[in-house]
Amino acid sequence: MSINLHSQLELDTSYKLLQLTPDLLNILTNPEYKGDELKFKSLHDNGKSDVVLCSKEKTWSIKQKNHSNTVLLMKEFVPEDNENDDGEDNDRIETFNMPRPINDFLGFTKTTFEYETRLSKGEINLEMVPVYDGEKDFFDHNNTKGKKKNGKISKLQNMSELIENSCCSEKECLEQWNRLGGCEINGYVCLLSSDFLSKSLHVVLMSVMAEQLNMDQLTVDETFNAIDKDVGDGFSPYTREVVKTVLNKFGTSISKNEDKGTRDVEKYRLDTPEITKWYGILALKKYVSRSSMALDEFLIKWKSLFPPFFPCNLDIAMLRGWHFKESNLHDDIGVVDNTNDRHDTSMVRVQYISRDTLSMDPKQRFQRLFSLQSRWDMEDLWPFVEELNIRGLKPDSFVAKFARRRKVGRRVVISSRG
Amino acid sequence: MPAVEITTSHLQTLLHETQDGARQITIPTPLGHTMLEIQGDLEMPKTVPTDAPDSRYSKYNDGEIDIVRFGLLNLDQEKKLATLFIGTKQRLLGKIVKLDTPLGLLKFDNSSKKVQLVDVINYKIIFSDRPLPIH
């Protein structure tokens, strides 16, 4: 088959090529595709900020991959009759002993790059989201028009605005929102402060236990009513929305798939390990942020923070990534293994460590961690360094770059190279 | 935040038809598009010469767009081979290859801030060797 090739003298520059990975192709070729499932999003319109591609559930980062080849995109067309020669043009074309051309292609655009698409983690954009601490006059838009006392202005009045303003998919946005303790107060989106979230969780647990509600099947309404019983006529920060935030953060929705239409009957199962961990971190911050404490004593303090009779099992391993240990044991015995019951908790002391205070430089961070605790179990160390593994190496390989790995019995012990 | 949706409306039916059954290599695509890649520059005139009439130049789109015939392409779809004659002196040998990742051809409309998926390209014709003379 021979084809005449033509090109526009002036090429169209409005075409771009986008790599379509199988999942992107699936979305675009789905018969249900309505035209709004895939969106390009960027934080700013100045062409400088990163662009991402978002579906309802996933996010892809977009990278411009330049090349120096000539890539010509052509389309089939029928040449217009040339008035000067009576359609005989085709016969005069040199065919170099090839069959006579039966077709005509026209080059209409030339591309110098492709957009590479890579599945990535979409990030919620919290730039315009203020923090709510339970104050009474927060966002009283009759008076302050969306202005918080500290001057931070929220422009976002609902979740769809937040999703629209975040470089991530709707699903990722909602998941992160729930995990971070996102809420809507007086018609504005905000995050509950850590302190207020703790208080709210405590109030929810107390009320749920007092009313003997089923912790595996809570609804927002019955939980809110249980709390409201104990509150007088005055201002209570523990609103329906706050209760919902607590259930979203510390519970799992178990009825979403069954009955999407009626959101009021959405049921939640409280996530006891997650709640136990939250109280554990509070205990670390409260009791051992400046100096260490014997582990068995710490466990008692931890237990004391819960509402009385709250059913939970405490295990220091739940607080990995939030503490380090000092051991009085002789070196030869090795690192204390907290994953089983063999160790003597009175010989181990724990202390809080905030990840926010650690260097983002891997070498420095490892150094600091070894200055606090000379030998680490891999499971204890990994949460502290995981975020620095930006190239996605295997945990063992990443750690081996900065520290010494040694087998002691069946365990792997990490220590400083020095 | 700037957000732009990708619409696929006009090629929806076609994408469906082509998904069913055994898919044959089609150069061009069912929608008539072809991707041609040459390792190197392809020099093309920028304007229509005014000094002498040249049958290679013509008009497209009701005379709105100047176009030039720059070569002849011969395709052997069975053997997946291609020969490209550029002008009267150069010849390129190439092949039809399947793309590792299909490419979506997108048209960006700056005035309406819309992006349309115009076609999905699965194959390209690539010429990666040096040009040969035409005997």
Topology summary:
The complex is a heterodimer of chains A (418) and B (135).
Chain A: E1 2-8, E2 15-19, H1 22-29, E3 39-42, E4 51-54, E5 59-76, H2 89-92, E6 103-120, E7 131-132, H3 159-164, H4 170-180, E8 182-185, E9 188-192, H5 194-210, E10 218-219, H6 220-230, H7 240-250, E11 251-253, E12 267-270, H8 272-287, E13 293-294, H9 295-305, E14 323-327, E15 348-352, H10 362-372, E16 375-377, H11 378-385, H12 395-402, E17 404-408, E18 411-415
Parallel strand pairs in A: 1-6, 2-6, 7-9
Antiparallel strand pairs in A: 3-4, 4-5, 5-6, 8-9, 10-12, 11-12, 13-15, 14-15, 16-18, 17-18
Chain B: E1 3-7, H1 12-19, E2 33-38, E3 57-60, E4 65-76, E5 81-86, E6 90-109, E7 114-127, E8 132-133
Parallel strand pairs in B: 1-7, 2-7
Antiparallel strand pairs in B: 3-4, 4-5, 5-6, 6-7, 6-8
Protein name (chain A): Sister chromatid cohesion protein DCC1
InterPro entries (chain A): Dcc1
Pfam family, one (chain A): Dcc1
SSE pattern of chain A: EEHEEEHEEHHEEHEHHEEHEHEEHEHHEE
Helix count from the secondary structure assignment of chain A: 12
Largest sheet, strands/sense/barrel of chain B: 8 strands, mixed
User: Structural class, from helix and strand content of chain B?
Assistant: mainly beta
Uncertain regions of chain B: pLDDT < 50 for 5+ in a row?
none
Shape of chain B: globular
Give the total of beta strands of chain A: 18
Number of strands of chain B: 8
Instruction: Outline the biggest β-sheet of chain A.
Output: 6 strands, mixed
Number of helices of chain B: 1
Range of helix content of chain B: under 10%
Radius of gyration of chain B: 18 Å
Query: Number of folding domains of chain A?
Result: 3
**What is the averaged pLDDT score of chain A?**
85
H and E order of chain B = EHEEEEEEE
Strand content of chain B: over 45%
Specify the structural class of chain A: alpha+beta
Low-confidence stretches of chain A: 84-88, 142-151, 330-334
